[in-house]
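--- STAGE predict ---
source: upstream dedup step, 1 unique chain passed
mode: sequence only
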Amino acid sequence: QVQLVESGGGLVQAGGSLRLSCAASGRTFSRYAMGWFRQAPGKEREFVAAISWSGGSTYTADSVRGRFTISRDNAKNTAYLQMNSLKPEDTAVYYCAAGPLPGRTSSYEYDYWGRGTQVTVSS
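--- STAGE serialize ---
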């Protein structure tokens, strides 16, 4: 099993940046593809970005492409989401997830989830 803990969320003004981290337990982190999702109040959870086992391939939702970057450091058992040029519509709880296959955009294809970290972007 993998346990995931997100951190790095907070309150930021529009145009600002945040870097989210997702720390994973266990020694099998490199065997999992990773994804970031977000859920705003009253809305469904939506895909943000994903990365393959080695980090060689990344996938980003249209809504954040060019602003958000996903990465991972397998030596540190950690995945990251660098968020730049933040907008009020980026406000949501951000979740990281681990699954067997890379590039998956459906939350149903991920097996393990963190508890989320709140990101609030003020206008």
